Amino acid sequence: MLSAPTATVVEPYAVIYEHDPALDNSAEGFAELYARCMEMGRVDDLPIKPGEKPTVFYLRHPSGELVDILKDLWAKHDGPNMVASATVAYCLCRVEGWGHDEPTWNGVSDKRGHSMVPAETIDVLRRIPGLIDSLATVVWTNISPSKN
Q1: How far apart, in Å, are the Cα atoms of 142 and each of 3, 4, 31, 109, 114?
Q2: 36 lies in some domain
């Protein structure tokens, strides 16, 4: 499972999907190293296959208002898939190393003026099994207790 550094709630943090094909998951102690690197925000310390470059997702911590919006989605029976997609749409702020058919990573706002990635981009990310759910889990795992 992904986790992210909690040292700052202001700056975006970097996450590499644990199943990124560029990661050398055959490296000794990979699972522990992966967890430690993600927790400390040290994506550069992950073992990478020679000649490969992983995709790095930058997530921002949601404001208290966004947390409330996402909780309302859940309460209105939109379910976990909708909440995961909305979480990523609101909190994904940049991606490096996507490599092909680069979608739009930002540029739309909701009716309250919150920046988010377009639905079409979420559809592209959904093509990678488990990615949306993993990124959303990172966000929810790292929400400040004062926002829960």
Answers
A1: 8, 7, 20, 23, 20
A2: yes
Give the total residue count for the chain.
Answer: 148
In angstroms, the CA 49 to CA 132 distance is 24
Distance between CA atoms of 148 and 105, rounded to whole angstroms?
Answer: 27
Phi and psi angles of residue 44, each rounded to the nearest 5 degrees, phi first: -70, -15
CA separation for the pair 116, 93 (Å, rounded): 8
If one counts the domains in the chain, the total is 1
With a CB cutoff of 8 Å and minimum separation 6, the contacts of 8 are none
Give 3-17 pLDDT, tens digit per residue: 555 445 578 899 999
Other residues' Cβ atoms within 10 Å of the Cβ of residue 114: 15
Q: Note the pTM of the prediction, 2 decimals.
A: 0.83
3-state helix, strand, coil in the chain (%, to 5): 40, 10, 45
Please give the structure tokens belonging to residue 32. 């522990």
Owning domain of residue 61: 13-143
